Amino acid sequence: MSNKRLAEILEEIASMLDLEGENLFFEVRAYRKAAQTLETMQQEVEEIFKKEGEEGLRKLPGVGKTIASHIIEFVEKGKIKKYDELKKKYPIDFAALTKIQGMGARKAFKLYKALGVRNMDDLRKAIAKHRVRDIDGFGEKSEQDITKGIEFLEKSGGRQLLGVALPVAEALVKQLKASKTVENAVVAGSARRMKETVGDLDILIVSEDPSKVEEAIAKMGEVDSIIAKGPTKISVVLKMGINCDFRIIEKDSFGAGLQYFTGSKDHGVQVRQIAVRKGYSLNEYQLSDKNGKKIVSRTEEEIYGKLGLDYIVPEMREARGEVDLAIHHKLPKLIAPTDMKGDLHTHTKFTDGINTIEEMAEKAASLGYEYIGLTDHSKSEYQTGGMDDKKFVNYFAQIDKANDKLDGKIKVLKSGEVDILKDGTLDLSSKTLDKMDYALCSIHSSFNLPKEDQTKRVMRAFESGYVRIFGHPTARLINQREPVQLDLDKVFESAKENNVVMEINSRPERLDLNDENIIRARGYGLKFAIDTDAHQTAHMEMMRYGIGTAQRGWITKGDVINTLAIDKFLKFLNR
Ligand code: DGT
Ligand code: CA
Ligand code: CA
Ligand code: ZN
Q1: Mean pLDDT across 234-255
Q2: Which of 144, 201, 398, 509 has the fewest CB atoms lying closer than 10 Å?
Q3: Lowest-confidence pick of 31-45, 296-310, 400-414, 561-575
Q4: Where are the alpha helices (DSSP H) in 407-482?
Q5: What are phi and psi of 378, to 5 degrees?
Q6: From the CB of residue 52, how many other CB atoms can be counted at a distance below 10 Å?
Q7: Is 264 in the pocket of ligand 1 (CB under 6 A)?
Q8: Closest Cα partner for 466 from 508, 503, 417?
C-alpha cells in the first residue's frame, strides 16, 4: 500500500471532476489538496487508519469526510468506487499523457473525444497519421509540439540535463526573490544535489501569502502553465519541457523543509531513522522530541547537528554511506570551486573553438586561474579542422608568442586532444607528443567496438606512456549516446600503472566520468582533472557542473591535479 498510489488516484479524480464541469471547482480543489498531503507525507495512511481510525485520517490537512471514506475504501478493498466509475467515462492514461510538455488533462480528453486516444500508443498512431492537427484547438504547430514532446520523453525518460535545468531554476529563484511577497526562495531536489539529469525542479518559497505567490509564478516567462495549485504547493509545466514544484513553507520550518525536499528520498529515510533511534521524529516541518515538541526547524545545520551528524552537503545526499560517515565525523572535505587553479581541456579557433588563444587565456585569468591548457584536436577529427604534426608546430609557436604577450599573467600550456585510434595508437607522432606539456587523449570514433576490443584499445594507448589525461573516458552523451563498452576495472588498473589521470568533463551532456564511476576510480587511487572542454570563453564557466559531479563522487582537492598551483603542477607533469 502506498500513499503515492493513492495520491495519484486522488489527483486523477480531481482531473476527471474538473472535466465534468465548472461547478465542481471546490471538489476538485479538495481532491488536489488531499493528494498533495498524501504525496509528501511520511507515515503511511494505512498505519494511521489502523491506529486511529477515521478520526486519525480526518486530522490530515485537506482530508474531510468524503476523502477519508475513499482512503478507507482503498485500504480495505484496494479500490475506490468513485474512481472506477469516473474511469469508465474517462478511460484515459492521464498520468502518461500529461507528462508530454504542454499536455494537460483537458487536452488529453479532447484527444480522446475526437480520436479515441487513450494512451501513448494511441497518440503516437494518431500523430503518425497527422490526425491531431485537424482537431479543434490543435493545429499543425500543436501537432509538431506534441511530436517533439514525445521524442523528448522517449529519449530522456523526461529528464532534462542539469546544465539546462539549473540555470532555469536559478532564474526562477531570482525573480521570485525580487517579488515583494516572497521572503526567500531556494532550489531544492535533484538540482540542488547536482544530479546529472533532473526529473522536475523543486523550489522552496518562504511566504505568508500563497495566493500572491501564485500570481508571481504565473507571470514568469519560463512558466508554460499551472497544472496544480494549493496553499502549500504549486506545480507548473515549464516551457523547457519539465515540471517545477514550488513548495510554500513557513520561515520557521525552512531548514526542515529544505532538508526534506532536497532529498534524496533514500538519504531522507536514513536521516529520519537516526531521528527515530534517538526517540525523535523528523518531518518537513520540524525535528520533534518524543512528546511532539519542537527541537529545531530553522536551518539544516541545526537539524543535522541535533541528530549528532556532521553537516552533509547536498551533493553527497544519496544514501551511499554518507550518513554513517557523518555519525563518526569522518566526512571527506570535498573539493570547492575556489580550489581550481586551471582548466586543462579547451579549444580555440585553431580547430573547432571560436576564440583565439589570447581570448581563452584572458578568460581563464579572469576566473582566477594560474594556467590554461589548450587542447585543440588532432587530425583524425577532420570535421573539427583537426591538426596534423606540422600544424601542431605552428600551434605551439603561437602559444609561445601568447605567453610572451601575457607576461606571466597566466601560463598557457601546450597540449592537444589526441585521438586514440581504433587500434589504440595515438593520432600524432611522438615528436609532437614530446613537445606537449601533457597530452589529453580521447575516443572520438569506433564507439561500438565490443567490450574486450574497446578495453584493449584504451589500455594500449595508456601503455604508450604518452596519455596523461584520459578525456571524457566513456564518451557517452547523456540522452544521446550510450557510454562505450569498457571493462572499467581493467582500464582503471592500467591507468594507475601508467600514471593516467581521469577526466571529469564538465559539459552538461557529458559529465564523464559520472559520479558512480568516479567513486570506482577513486578506489584505484586514481587522480582526476576537472575540465570544461570549452569551445568558447563562456563555456569555461561550466566548471561548476564538473565540480558538482566530482562532489557527488566524494572527490577532495587532493584528488584533483588542476587544483595544484602552477609550480607544483609543472612538477607533477615532469614527475
Ligand atoms: P528528480 O525530480 O527525479 O530528479 O529527483 P528529486 O530528488 O528531485 O525527487 P522529487 O522531485 O520527486 O522530490 C523532491 C524531494 O522531495 C526528494 O528528493 C525527497 C522528497 N520526497 C519526495 N517524495 C518523497 C517521499 O515519498 N518520501 C520521502 N521521504 N521524501 C520524498
Ligand atoms: Ca525533482
Ligand atoms: Ca518534484
Ligand atoms: Zn575536447
Answers
A1: 93
A2: 144
A3: 31-45
A4: 430-435, 451-463
A5: -90, 170
A6: 12
A7: yes
A8: 417
- Specify the residue for cell string 605567453: 403
Q: Annotate 177-201 with b (16+ C-beta within 10 A) or e (fewer).
A: eebebbbebbbbbbbbbbbbbbbbb
Say yes or no: domain 160-248 is CATH 3.30.460.10.
Answer: yes
**From the CA of 425, how far away is ligand 2's center (Å)?**
44
Spell out a b/e string for 257-277, using b for 16 or more CB atoms within 10 Å of the CB, else e: bbbbbbbbeebbebbbebbee
Find out whether the beta carbon of 269 lies less than 6 Å from any atom of ligand 1. Answer: yes
41 has pLDDT over 80: no
| Ligand 4 centroid, distance to 346 Cα (angstroms) | 6
Pocket of ligand 1 contains residue 199 by CB under 6 Å: yes
Closest to 204 (Cα-Cα) out of 231, 223, 184, 218:
184
Q: What is the mean pLDDT of the chain?
A: 94
Average pLDDT, stretch 37-44?
A: 77
List the domain boundaries for the chain.
3-156, 160-248, 256-327, 337-574
* pLDDT level of residue 24 (50, 70, 90 thresholds): confident
The SS3 assignment for 541 reads helix
* pLDDT tens profile 319-375: 999 999 999 999 999 999 999 999 999 999 999 998 999 999 999 999 999 999 999
Q: For a ligand 1 pocket test, name from 162, 202, 282, 478 the mutation site with the most ligand atoms within 8 angstroms of its C-beta.
A: 202
Of ligand 1's listed atoms, the one at least distance from the Cα of 190 is 8
Q: Please check whether residue 124 is in contact with residue 41, taking contact to mean a CB–CB distance below 8 angstroms.
A: no
Cα–ligand 2 centroid distance for 104 (angstroms):
19
Spatial distance between the Cα atoms of 170 and 156, rounded to a whole number of angstroms: 22
Report the sign of the C-alpha dihedral through residues 540, 546, 551, 556, in that order.
negative
* Ligand 3 center to 434 CA (angstroms): 51
Please indicate whether residue 559, judged by its CB atom, sits closer than 6 Å to ligand 1.
no
**Rg of the Cα atoms in the chain:** 27
Residues 466, 91: Cα–Cα separation, whole Å: 63
CA–CA separation, 512 and 567 (whole Å): 28
| CATH code given to domain 337-574 | 3.20.20.140
Ligand nearest to the CA of 378: 4
Would the CB of 189 count as within 6 Å of ligand 1?
yes
Q: Which of 317, 318, 308 is nearest to 277 (CA)?
A: 308
Domains 3-156 and 337-574 share a fold: no
Q: Residue 1: is its pLDDT beyond 60?
A: no
DSSP 77-141: HS--HHHHHHHHH----HHHHTTSTT--HHHHHHHHHHH---SHHHHHHHHHTT-GGGSTTTHHH
Q: What is the mean pLDDT of residues 475-487?
A: 90
Model pTM score:
0.82
Domain 256-327 has CATH 3.30.210.10: yes
What dihedral angle (degrees, nearest 10) is formed by the CA atoms of 361, 367, 368, 372? -30
> At the topology level of CATH, where does 3-156 sit?
DNA polymerase; domain 1 (1.10.150)
* Cα separation, 224 vs 215, whole angstroms: 13
Span 550-571, mean pLDDT? 98
